[in-house]
Design brief:
The chain has 473 residues and is an alpha+beta fold. It is built from ten helices and twelve strands. Helix 2 (14-66) runs antiparallel to helix 4 and helix 7 crosses helix 8 (355-372).
Length: 473
C-alpha cells in the first residue's frame, strides 16, 4: 500500500502534489477536530457554563447573607439563568425573579440536600421531555447559606449547546481562514518553484538537442545552486566538445602523416623506386614511421585508459615508489647514454595507487626530461613528494597554463599526451602536479598534503638520522 501511494505521488505534478498535501492536511485537521478537540471543547463549555452560574450566584449569595429576610426582584439573565431558594426545614422553594423549578428538579434538589452539603456543588439533571421523544438536560449549582437555606441557580443545557456551536464555528472559521491564507501562500511559493524548474527543464532539453541555450535563474537557494551547476556543466560540456574536436583534428593530422609516408614508400618500393637510394634505406623509413604510429596509438590507448582510471585502491600508501623509479630508469637511460642521472631516493617512501599508472607517470616525466636535458637529469624522492628536473630550456610563461592540456606540444614534443596522462593519474590518486622553471632547466613536482601523523613520523625519522650521523663523527 505504501509503495503504491509512493508511486502514485511520483506521477503527480508539483501543483497536484501541493493540492494533495493541502487536502491531507485539511482531512487530518478535521479528524483532529472531531476526535481530539471536540471532547476538549465539551469540557471547556461545561466548565464555562458552571463558571457563569458561579459568577451569577456570587452577588446573590452575598445579598442574601446580608439581608436574609429580603427576596430581591430580578429578571432572568441573557444566559437563561434562574435563581431560587430552597428552605429544607419547610421543604419550600422560593423563586427569585422569573422562572420555576419542575417537579423532577425539586425532587433532585431534595435528594442532594438530604445529606450534609457544606460547600458549593454543581450538578446535572437529565430528564425526558413531556412528550417523551427527546432528552433534555439542566445544569444547576447549590450553595448552602449561613442560615440553613440553599441558593439554587440553574441553566438549561440548550444554552450550552448554543455556546458550544458558536465556539466550534468560530474555531473552524479561524482555521479555515488560516488554512486558506497558508494555501494561497503555498500556491505562490509553488509558482516560484515551478517557473524556474520549467526554465531548467527547457534548458536541459535544448542542451540535449545541441541547441543554443541560456538559463536566467537568479536565486540563492537550492534551485539557484542547481541552475549554477547546470550552467557550469554546459560550459564544461562546451569545453570538452571543443577539446574533443581539436583532439580528433590532431589525431587525424598526426596519423595522416606516417600513414601517407608508409603508403608512398611502399608504392615506390613496389614500382622499384628507392627514395633513399637503397631498399634497406626506404624500408628503414617505413619502419621508423610505423614505430611512430605505434607509439601514437599506444599513447592514445593509455590516454583512453586513464580517462576511466578510478581510485579503487585500499586506503593508505602501499606502493614503493623507489622500486618503480628504478625499473623506469633501467629501460630509459639507454636512450641517451650521454645524459647523467642523479638519484636522491629516500628509501621506504610509499605512494598511494597502483604500480602501472605510476610507472607511466614516471616514464612520461623521464622521457620528457630526456628530450630537453643538456647534460643531466635529477630525480628526488621524499615522503609524499617526487621531483624530476633537467638542465634544459625553460618553459615559456605563455605555455605554463596549458602544459597539462591534451595535444599541447612543446618545441620538441611528440604527441602532447604525456603530461595530460601525468595530470590525470596524479589527480585521481589525490596528488598535485606542477612545473616550475629553475635557474637552469625545469622541474616537475608531484606532491600531496601530509597529515600531522605523517609529518611527526618524518620529523622523528630525521632526528634519528641526525643522531646516527653525530655518533659516526
Amino acid at each position: 500500500m505504501r509503495k503504491r501511494m509512493y508511486l502514485w505521488l511520483r506521477e503527480l505534478s508539483l501543483s497536484q502534489q501541493l493540492l494533495t498535501i493541502a487536502f491531507l492536511v485539511i482531512s487530518i485537521f478535521t479528524v483532529f477536530l472531531f476526535a481530539f478537540l471536540s471532547p476538549q471543547i465539551d469540557l471547556f463549555t461545561r466548565t464555562e457554563m458552571y463558571r457563569m452560574l458561579h459568577q451569577s450566584q456570587a452577588s446573590m449569595s452575598y445579598y442574601l447573607t446580608r439581608y436574609p429576610d429580603d427576596i430581591p426582584e430580578m429578571k432572568q439573565s441573557g444566559a437563561g439563568i434562574i435563581h431560587g431558594i430552597y428552605e429544607a426545614d419547610t421543604n419550600e422553594f422560593i423563586m427569585i425573579g422569573e422562572g420555576t423549578f419542575t417537579d423532577a428538579e425539586k425532587t433532585d434538589i431534595r435528594l442532594r440536600t438530604a445529606g450534609s452539603l457544606v460547600r458549593q456543588s454543581d450538578y446535572e439533571l437529565r430528564t425526558m421531555s413531556e412528550n417523551g421523544r427527546r432528552r433534555q438536560s439542566v445544569l444547576y449549582t447549590l450553595t448552602p447559606l449561613d442560615d440553613g437555606r440553599y441558593l439554587i441557580s440553574k441553566m438549561s443545557a440548550s444554552y450550552e449547546t448554543t455556546f458550544r456551536r458558536e465556539l466550534v464555528s468560530n474555531i473552524v472559521d479561524i482555521n479555515v481562514i488560516v488554512a486558506g491564507v497558508l494555501f494561497l501562500l503555498l500556491m505562490v511559493w509553488a509558482a516560484t518553484l515551478i517557473h524556474p524548474l520549467n526554465q531548467i527543464r527547457n534548458y536541459v532539453t535544448r542542451i540535449k538537442l545541441d541547441e543554443p541555450a541560456s538559463l536566467n535563474v537568479n536565486r540563492r537557494d537550492e534551485i539557484g545552486q542547481v541552475a549554477d551547476a547546470l550552467r557550469d556543466m554546459q560550459e564544461e560540456l562546451q569545453k570538452h566538445s571543443r577539446e574533443k574536436q581539436e583532439m580528433i583534428q590532431n589525431i587525424s593530422h598526426d596519423l595522416k602523416t606516417p600513414i601517407a609516408t608508409i603508403r608512398s614508400y611502399g608504392e615506390s618500393i613496389k614500382d622499384g623506386i628507392y627514395a633513399y637510394g637503397t631498399l634497406e634505406g626506404s624500408v628503414d623509413v617505413i619502419i621508423e614511421h610505423a614505430d611512430r604510429l605505434e607509439k601514437k596509438v599506444g599513447s592514445l590507448l593509455a590516454m583512453n585508459r586513464m580517462d576511466y582510471l578510478l581510485d579503487e585502491c585500499a586506503e593508505g600508501d602501499h606502493l614503493d615508489m623507489a622500486q618503480v623509479i628504478d625499473k623506469v630508469l633501467l629501460s630509459l637511460k639507454v636512450i641517451r647514454p650521454e645524459i647523467e642521472f642523479h638519484k636522491e631516493l629516500t628509501p621506504g617512501v610509499l605512494f598511494h595507487g597502483d604500480e602501472d599508472p605510476w610507472r607511466i607517470v614516471v616514464e612520461n616525466l623521464v622521457d620528457n626530461a630526456l628530450r630537453y636535458a643538456e647534460s643531466e637529469i635529477r630525480i628526488e624522492l621524499e615522503p609524499g613528494e617526487l621531483r624530476v628536473s633537467n638542465d634544459g630550456k625553460q618553459i615559456p610563461p605563455d605555455r605554463m597554463d596549458k602544459l597539462f592540456t591534451a595535444y599541447e606540444k612543446g618545441t620538441d614534443g611528440k604527441f602532447g599526451l604525456g603530461l595530460t596522462i601525468v595530470h590525470k593519474v596524479c589527480t585521481t590518486y589525490g596528488y598535485h602536479v606542477e612545473a616550475e622553471n629553475l635557474e637552469k632547466g625545469v622541474c616537475f613536482r608531484i606532491w600531496k598534503e601530509l597529515s600531522r601523523k605523517e609529518l611527526k613520523a618524518i620529523a622523528k625519522e630525521k632526528k634519528k638520522e641526525d643522531r646516527a650521523q653525530k655518533s659516526q663523527r
